[in-house]
């Protein structure tokens, strides 16, 4: 039954993504497909996977181990928090903070996830913003970058 519930949730979420993605329009045409192609493609793949889960169904599943539901809820809260601070804090700070919290959530200490988060967020910022010319928010670092 868990697979079917997940499949129904995926189809509903894909429908919301499709509904929101259809209305995306760029103020100017900077690529042939426009900004709606990626969310619509992701929504289609998600819907197909959800339908597969609903049709396939599932056998008996093991219950989550103790503490797993708390970690799942914490992961959800971290992702929502990331979305809320992304624009104001900027890509580098928001991504480094999210990486650090997720690393801690999965049993890491504070130092290694912090170092990994800072290095990866700076690397990906320069890769996307400077090399691939994908504009990412600078947030509070705007004066320095």
Automatic annotation (TrEMBL):
The keyword Transmembrane applies. Coiled coil: none annotated. Keywords: Membrane, Transmembrane, Transmembrane helix. The keyword Magnesium does not apply. Residues 5-137 form the DUF1468 domain. The chain crosses the membrane at residues 6-25, 37-55, 75-98, 110-128. This is Tripartite tricarboxylate transporter TctB family protein. It comes from Lampropedia puyangensis.
């Amino acid at each position: 039954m868990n697979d079917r519930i997940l499949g129904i949730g995926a189809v509903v979420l894909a429908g919301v993504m499709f509904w929101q993605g259809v209305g995306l329009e760029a103020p100017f045409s900077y690529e042939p497909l426009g900004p709606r192609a990626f969310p619509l493609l992701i929504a289609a793949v998600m819907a197909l996977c959800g339908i597969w889960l609903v049709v396939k169904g599932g056998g008996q599943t093991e219950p989550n181990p103790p503490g797993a539901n708390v970690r799942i809820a914490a992961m959800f809260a971290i992702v929502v928090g990331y979305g809320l601070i992304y624009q104001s804090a900027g890509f580098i700070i928001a991504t480094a903070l999210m990486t650090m919290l997720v690393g801690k959530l999965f049993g890491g200490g504070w130092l290694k996830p912090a170092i990994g988060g800072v290095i990866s967020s700076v690397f990906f910022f320069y890769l996307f913003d400077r090399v691939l010319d994908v504009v990412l928010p600078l947030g509070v670092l705007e004066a320095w970058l």
